[in-house]
Design brief:
Layout: H1 2-13, H2 17-45, E1 46-48, H3 51-59, E2 63-68, E3 72-77, E4 86-90, H4 97-103, E5 107-110, H5 118-147, E6 162-164, H6 166-169, H7 180-194, H8 196-200, E7 209-213, H9 220-231, E8 235-239, H10 250-265, E9 268-273, H11 293-307, E10 314-320, H12 328-331, E11 338-341, H13 347-358, H14 369-374, H15 381-397, H16 405-417, H17 428-446, E12 454-458, E13 469-472, H18 483-504, H19 512-527, E14 541-543, E15 552-554, H20 558-585, H21 587-600, E16 602-604, H22 605-613
Parallel strand pairs: 1-4, 2-5, 7-10, 7-11, 8-9, 9-10
Antiparallel strand pairs: 2-3, 3-4, 6-8, 12-13, 12-16, 14-15
Amino acid sequence: MKLVEECNMAKQKKPPKHLIFYYIIAMLTMLMLHAFIFPLLSEQQVTKVDYSTFLNQVESGAVSEVEIQESQIIFTTKDESEQNKKYMTGAINDPELVDRLYKAGVNFSQDIPKENSPLTNILLTWILPLIFFIGIGQLLVNQMQKRMGGMNSMTFGKSKAKIYVQAQTGKTFDDVAGQDESKEALAEIIDFLHNPKKYSEIGANLPKGALLVGPPGTGKTLLAKAVAGEAKVPFFSISGSEFVEMFVGMGAAKVRDLFQQANEKAPCIVFIDEIDTIGKKRDSGRGFGGNDEREQTLNQLLTEMDGFDGKKGVVILAATNRPESLDKALLRPGRFDRRIPVELPDLKGREAILKVHAQRVKMEDSIDFNAIARATSGASGAELANIINEGALRAVKNGRSHVDQADLEESVEVVIAGYQRKGAVISQKEKEIIAYHEIGHALVAAKQTDSAPVHKITIIPRTSGTLGYTMQVEEGERVLMSKGEAFNKIATFTGGRAAEELVFGTFTSGASNDIEQATKIARAMVTRLGMSKNFDMMALETVNNPYLGADTSLTCSAETAAKIDDEVLGIIKSAHEKAISILQENIEKLHELARYLLEKETITGEEFMEILAH
């Protein structure tokens, strides 16, 4: 297998012959033009005649002008129909020619050939053609590079890593909020690079690699840039996709070049973004071993991480949101020694992130960031940054120079549900159904214990497709969910459909998203959370990736899967019946609140609770 790789590498190192082919084509084209096309063009402009014909026309007075050259004679006639037509005849040693022309009254002249200087001859014969062909070749090379994705035949196997120093990234740990644990782990590595002696004295070795793992938008790349700003050492930044080449062996060559540069610049930090591109688990079932380009790149990365000395101060940082797909050999101690989780921020973290991004925006002094943070549970750092930006855009649109609380609250709804569809045409009957639907959610939530307070109710449609929604905001941060809380959530989701049934005696498609959410929670209660008496603490489902959609797969037999469906259906039915019971007990408030919502279209949680309490 090694022999095959060496053969492939030898083939790749040969010079690209196709460029010479293009040069030859250009040269042959110029020769053909000079040999065939240019003479034809000249022949089309000048008509050849014999010398006797020329003399006869001179004696007959038909010639008007004559130009005597070294090897030929060019003349024109007095015929008006051939005014611009020229004739040519060969120059013969005729001593009487001048007398004949003079007697015939012909205007004649003789061309005195100029002798070019040696420098001019060299310029015309060698330099200008050489410049022409070099220009043609460069044009062809540029075109080929564009078609091949910007690759250069002279840079195959060269790393495309960008090198930063402290002043170039513009980021420090002060720009990263909500990730205190991650910063603490990385700060230890940075301290090791600054003060290696105090660690070596006790016998501690520098971790070779640290893997940043977390959902998209949590700030993994931002953390890496902050490390560059804090480390004050050379910082190599490259994406995993830049190792992927169409030629076998090129990715491995780039890995070798990257680590060679890193060893020369040590102490330094190397950051590989989206390392899952090259670090996926190797497939041994195809029968081709390590001959695949991606696997060769991974094998070379593993070898290089084993080969360099940790005491030199070369640290590998990598980021991914697909840790389950990485090869186990990459994650073992001695390669990526540390796994640093970069999770979604908690309440305190969200508030800190909002304040960091708000520093670049003109804000009112009365902004309550805690309220915005409570309304954005589960939001990533990127989404929180987008909320601040949306608030600034809304302030500009409304002609204000500062962002206020209403701007941020509206931007939260824009990020969650999209922009308002003010031009949407909805009939009065459908508006009434939507109002009862949303009040049904809010009323069921308000009448249950351990349920988040209602923050806002609206029946204004949004661009995400929602015709209205009820927003609940927790008063504090919750990390655990009891069985009763999960059941109450399902009951709240079924409250909208329950209100439609009680008031209108029909079903609509407005509950489609509620059905999905209720089913998702009920299935998790049975299969993963151990909240079912029939299955106790048995794991019946696994999460494939907790960071990208949290897709699940069943780990049970078909018979058990059927029992799971029955259990999930029973939970949803019980919650639905509870919602109907709550609404029946509060039917008058349901009508009163629905009429008020129809009138206002949007009401706050305070308005809702005030009407409900009286």
